[in-house]
Amino acid sequence: MPEVMVNIGCGTVYHPEWLNLDVVPASNLVRYLDVRKGLPLADCEAVACFSSHVIEHLSPATADAFLCEQRRVLK
Question: Which of 2, 13, 21, 39 has the most CB atoms lying inside 10 A of its own CB?
């Protein structure tokens, strides 16, 4: 099974081999995701989570929950 790499809040910068997620999908290669509702992955499923310029848009409590979600899905 291929390794899951996640690009969270990717905007218009996405890669076909990654799971690209954004609240406003810029392409059919990007899936909709509201990070406040968690990540659509099982525990320990991803080998990488990339989320540049996302956390500054979240409240402190939501940012904390978002980071916990990333830790949950990482191997």
Answer: 21
